[in-house]
Batch of 2 targets.
Target 1
Amino acid sequence: MKICSKCNIEKAFNAFYKCRTHSDGYGSWCKECNHKRNQSEHTKERNRNYNRSPKGSQVRKKYAKSKKGSIIIKKALERYRSTEKYTEYRRSYRQLVRVKKQ
Ligand SMILES: [Zn+2]
């Protein structure tokens, strides 16, 4: 068992993400707290800014070229293409192209 330093609740080790930099091999925040933090607007905004920065795009390009990265990106793209959001995007894009041609 381990106490989460964010919510102060004692949880089993499988409720924590593994983290090599910690002496016990697990992160100090539980999965739930990590998830909440990742969903916050602050973090989303920070990630957006990072992805747009030269360093961020360099890291992403490198990741996309790696074996692991290319597989994960391909899967994420397939998942995205099966969503309603993508269908909607395709529809509006096609309309946009049609308008430009006229
Ligand atoms: Zn927690």
Target 2
Amino acid sequence: MSLAIDLISAINQAIKNLFKRRITLRYPEVNLDIERGYSYDPKAQVGIAGYKGRHILHLEKCTGCSLCAIACQNIANCIAMVKLDVSYPQNKKSIFPQIDYGNCVFCGFCVDACPFYALFMTNDHELSSTDKKSLIMSPLQLSIPPVKKKGLVQLEIDDRGPYHK
Ligand code: SF4
Ligand code: SF4
């Protein structure tokens, strides 16, 4: 008897959900459109809400001050300052941050510490790899903005909660 009740209840639940709007995405064919990454405005001293994905480094603003590396509380020291063979007037030693995403916890402390608007985060969250070394991103790699993905959708919200078309 209880089995029959459970069965009817399960079917009932399934029928109800048939008419609800879907909130799951057919990832990776469809991606959620996350507009921007987390940033920090040092003059106003406010963080600007955004996704905490991999960083973007603006080489032409980075002074090589190392404050981002010092601010990183990660026990594995995931920011290393490395020398590049490039020349920028504001960076006399030509040293820039390199980030190890095998250890980064995406806290954003390094972004908060940068006084020169040189280091922000992006909406790029697809960083998985089978090779740990490839998770170390050089300053040059960090300076390239993430590629805008195809099949982006934005969630909409109605009185039944978030959904996508
Ligand atoms: S996001 Fe956090 S853990 Fe990652 S590099 Fe910056 S300070 Fe370190
Ligand atoms: S990213 Fe910012 S905090 Fe880090 S070295 Fe460059 S200027 Fe300094």
